[in-house]
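Q: Here's a chain of 452 amino acids. Please give me its 3D structure as tokens.
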Amino acid sequence: MKITVIGVGKIGSEIAKRLSKDGHDIIVIDRNEDRLTKLGDKFDVLTIKGNGANALLLKDPDIIDSDLLVAVTDSDEVNMIACLMAKKLGIKQTVARVRDPVYVESDTVLSTEELGVDLIINPEYSAAAEIARLLSLPVPTEPFAGGRVHMARITLHDKIPDYTSKKIAEIKLPKSLLIVAISRHGQLIIPSGNDTIKVGDTLYFLGFKEAISQISKILFKKPPGKKVYRTMILGGGKIGYYLAQRLCAKGLQVVIVEKNHDKCEELAERLPSNALVLEGDGSDIELLQREGIEHTDGFVTVTGLDEANLLLAHLAKQLGAKRTIAKISRQAYTSLVEQMDIDAAISPQTITASKVLRYIRGGRLLSLVLLFNEQAEIVELIVPQGSKVTGKPLMKLKLPKGIIVGAIQREDKTVIPTGEESIEEGDRIVVFAQGQYSISNIESLFTGGRVH
């Protein structure tokens, strides 16, 4: 598929990178030559310097025959104009980054169809929605198979009897639970029964909700948090606003700490009465203690600085916050999250790239989780008629190293498979794969390719 990406900031770069890895022909357009050079040096993409909303540029032979145009500049207006012109010029599908709700509300004069946009993405809104989802759970998990199967990430900060210093084959895990991966010192391991669990490891579990709950009670340093009633948010930008809006709508108490006076006034005007907006420095320990951080159920850091988000989320846990979530953009910081006392981290770029990839795949891909250290993906798909993997026990398929079938759903029955289970046509399967495999590789393997 030939795809043009307009705007290569954090979001555009992540999308271009993921799509290039997936085997698509990528063209990137940006006015900033340094950004283009940096991206072009690292990935197999064609770079063009210019204004993506310029009709003359869009008529370039390399661009006009694109199958998809993704406009993700910092300007909503530029993105919508680029998509509208792309549609007029014959490009079949368009995706626009639109962050201002005034353009997408139900009473807007022009529909997305009239604007020439097939899919609207709002990274900040999506990030806020993901944070709100994580806050609603006793243990942060990713759902699959219609919510019947979950993945959880648990870091072993201390020695755990019967787990640490033991081989996986020796550990009695709760029924219907798999350890699909181990992250150790920033490196991802797909384990066998002979691998030993060590203090400091981050374990990725896939299993039924009940099994995840059981293992969490055993391995967490502190018992998993109860329901969130009060949340403190550091950072009053778009993510902070969207998150506060969602939490307030659920009747929860929200405190937002923001340095900028004008932002504080705007937030106070736009948010309901159960949101308290404080003008102040989120790194001020006295302020946090004065506002009752020790009684805070959820503490979320969404400032523009990754370093501040990580450190303050870690600090909040030490000061008594029950659950902490940090926003980060740099993938290099993933290993830090595992080492620090932080419950979860989210990346708007990764969430958005995942959404675009799912859109491109259409109904073939039921869900997709990109682990933002780029070392793994979790793909959920339906096995079609004619697939080469059907009818044989998993142990005889000789799947490539680094690929695990973590769950199989057949009609109303879902199983966490052993090597004796087989895949059948029409099955809904959850696949955990190391990062060297593209989404296309995984999809091809289970939908029609051969097993090597």
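Q: Can you summarize the key feature?
A: The CA atoms of residues 48 and 60 lie 10 Å apart.
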